[in-house]
Amino acid sequence: MKMADGSTILRRNRPGTKSKDFCRWPDEPLEEMDSTLAVQQYIQQLIKRDPSNVELILTMPEAQDEGVWKYEHLRQFCMELNGLAVRLQKECSPSTCTQMTATDQWIFLCAAHKTPKECPAIDYTRHTLDGAACLLNSNKYFPSRVSIKESSVTKLGSVCRRVYRIFSHAYFHHRRIFDEFEAETYLCHRFTHFVTKYNLMSKENLIVPINVGENAAPGESEA
Amino acid sequence: MGTNSGATAGINNKPVGGAGGAGVLGGGGVGGANSSIGGVLSNSLGGGGSGGLSISGLNAGGQNANVGGLIGVGGMGNVGGDDGGNGMVGGGPNNQQATTPQYTIPGILHFIQHEWSRFELERSQWDVDRAELQARIAMLLGERKCLESLKSDLTRRIKMLEYALRQERAKFYRLKYGTDPPQLNEFKPSNEDAGLAGEVATDSEVPYSSVSNTTWRQGRQMLRQYLAEIGYTDNIIDVRSNRVRSILGLNNNAEHDGSGGGLGGGLGSGTGGENLSPNINGNESNKRASETEGRHTPAKKVQQSIDEIIVDTEAAVMANFEFLGATEMSDDDEISDDLEMVATDNDDTDVKMAKRAKSGKDMLTEDLEADVGEQLLNDMNLMTEEVDGSLGLGELAQLTVNNESDGAYDANSKDGSGGSAGGAGYRKTWNAKYTLRSHFDGVRSLIFHPEEPVLITASEDHTLKLWNLQKTVQAKKSASLDVEPLYTFRAHTGPVLCLGMSSSGETCYSGGLDGNIECWQLPSPNIDPYDCYDPNVHSGTLEGHTDAVWGLTTMQSNIVSCSADGTVKLWSPYNKEPLLRTYTASEAEGAPSSVDFVRNEVDHIVVAYNSAHCIVYDTETGKQVVRLEAAQEMSGNTGKFINKVVSHPTLPITITAHEDRHIRFWDNTSGTLVHSMVAHLEPVTSLAVDAHGLYLLSGSHDCSIRLWNLDNKTCVQEITAHRKKFDESIFDVAFHATKPYIASAGADGLAKVFV
């Protein structure tokens, strides 16, 4: 976006940038990114370009460490889920949703506490996101964003399972919010596809009816 | 009862008859508080003069006329002629007072009481004035004496160095020719020596003043304690030093020779305004001055105290000092205990320096370092360099550097004593202590609580987080000095770009890419991170901007924000109509990029625009007050883009951080560029000034933060703090207002706190 001098492209959001110009700069090929945050940059760049192109966003570049790839994607999911939480805050109150439920089948207990607790849905949402933020930024489990320990990669699955419940709660209890949010971000789409692709959650847990097959079909031909 | 009767009598506001007039005149004089009363009284006396009345000080008739008017009592007019001094209430009609109003005794009493209290008030005011002036005289006297004693101190040092040099030369001579040099023990240096000594003195002028700075710093701190004891609080001292700083600020950056040249200049710029504080303490400085003067006058006595120490410690050294002769031990008795402390301290240094000089074939910095205190060490280092400098006659550049850092120490120690910031006060090196990791994306802004060790960060991940540095949540998922956030503020639907906090620390405001400003009530800093959701934390949204809000700053209950929609808005967040005013510049200026309140001028804000100009607005009138621009400097302003503007907390100075790697300083009154410096390797993105206005912190996309001494605009410390994401690195820096914390926020999603 910012052309400073000659051919150098400086990818900066200077103060005063209009919101439509935020992060609007020419894509940078992953191989040219020399930052330790290259994967995040790359993923965000793809999402910025077209959030609906879930398949492309989830296509792992060659020679990419899969652990890092999954980790950075999960960070991005949790980050974008803040948007859903903001919307839910307005509507989902402890009086209307006293428990974290999706279908009537399960009541989810909040794992953020010493002993799992039956938090109201909004608290569950916030605690889960806060806990995920702490875990994914933990110096102990994820000290580096360039390489991830194998033991830590296993943590990603449980984070996925927990944050997925936010989608499912929104879908079953706050459908309008869910639909609006999904139309903008394709986040549940992308998430479902992500966990399926990397086998982070079992299929029977994916209760939000997203037609993965439809989106996945062209993807599978590539992959 | 004289007054009473007088009052009763004193109802005539004009002297009656010729005799009366004479009486009035006879008593004429200025009697302070009583004079007017006297005037009133005496009027009644008529021909009798002032015989019966004790109060005879008179004012002019005109004032009496006033009095009559005030009293407003009629019919009591007194022809006091016959009554003489009795002060009897004359019932007779007063033909000259046809218009005189009725007088009543209570009315008169009331009047007199009133007048009395008024005079009392005036008198006490006068007393206060007098005390102030006296204090000022004492101050100025002390100031003079300080300078005198400084001069003598310097002279003493020069003598010492001359001596050291002679010793060196002698040694050199011995080593080279194997014989004692001629004239070794003569006190009067040979012509050659004299010439060299002179040379040394001139060459080392700068280091001399810096050494004395160190000495003065000790003395100053001590005097500051005395002052505190006698009730001169830091505030008063600060006011004075601020004044001096502002004076110095005018000939900004003039460094040593600029502000008065030579000795005075060194004193002024090196040690700031604090030199003045000792002066208040008359006694001490008197004693000290007389003492030093006593030493000073006979040149030989300069070394007397050194000799005294030497007697105690090293006879050999003493032998070397013999030529300095006369040790007047009796002088010491005159020195008060407190001063002895100071003196001993200094002398100690001097002796060490003397030893050094004596054995100083080479640079002997290391071996002595072990056994001397830090402060002394500092002295010594400077001293060594002096010696070396004078011997080698060079290295001035190095000395300058040292001077600068010396100034930094100075300001630092001042900072330590001024704020609650602890610290032994000497060199403060900031070290990263806390890493705040919990954001998923770049941290755009951070702000400290005004009192608590608490801060808030705002990130591109759409959230704000609250951190308590005292609650390093050791638990489950974090390593040692990581801090876990206590609370996550969610309301923005896009990246959060800027933060502000109320002066009470109860409320904070955040501006986002979504164009909204959210208002938050801070949860308790001891909240459980996984507590229930309290919707009241989010206490409102200020809607009005139609594009990203990039700048936000607070002053008392108001906040001012700037947005990519081209406007700057002033808000009073909890009003019914929160938006107070909108300021819009011409199209040519582009969008505002940053905004700050002008801290030393109420109702002024300074706004930086894309055009690389700053404009100061009056918030009340909405008028442009001054435009900060420098034609030649800013010509072709592409790339000079301003990333951040801050106002100096006490001086009329605006500081701007530029895309072209510069930090620039502007004079708010004239709108001119005061100083410009290349500060970083890449664009400067953020600035913060500490609460005392002594230090500037800057952050840049070159991944480093730098701490600057505002006095001499030198970099005190550089810390590499963050990593790059795209071409961005550091977004914000901050000072804690009352605690020794600084912090930086980076594009890598981390915030760091340094102590």
Automatic annotation (TrEMBL), chain B:
Ordered alphabetically, the record's keywords are: Calmodulin-binding, Coiled coil, Repeat, WD repeat
On whether Coiled coil is a keyword of this UniProt record, the answer is: yes
Q: Which residues form the Striatin N-terminal domain?
A: 104-237
Where along the chain is composition biased (Gly residues)?
Answer: 259-273
A GO molecular-function annotation:
calmodulin binding
The WD repeat boundaries are: 436-477, 489-522, 542-572, 677-718
Matches recorded under InterPro entries = Striatin_N, WD40/YVTN_repeat-like_dom_sf, WD40_PAC1, WD40_repeat_CS, WD40_repeat_dom_sf, WD40_rpt, WD_repeat_striatin
**Short name of one Pfam family for this protein?**
WD40
Gene3D superfamilies on file: 1.20.5.300, YVTN repeat-like/Quinoprotein amine dehydrogenase
Polar residues biased stretches: 274-284
Q: Where is the composition biased (Basic and acidic residues)?
A: 285-296
Answer whether the UniProt record assigns the keyword Repeat to this protein.
Answer: yes
Which parts of this chain are annotated as the region Disordered?
252-302
The parts of the chain that form a coiled coil are: 130-171
Member of which family? Belongs to the WD repeat striatin family.
What name goes with this protein? Striatin N-terminal domain-containing protein
Q: Which organism is it from?
A: Drosophila gunungcola
Source taxonomy lineage?
Eukaryota, Metazoa, Ecdysozoa, Arthropoda, Hexapoda
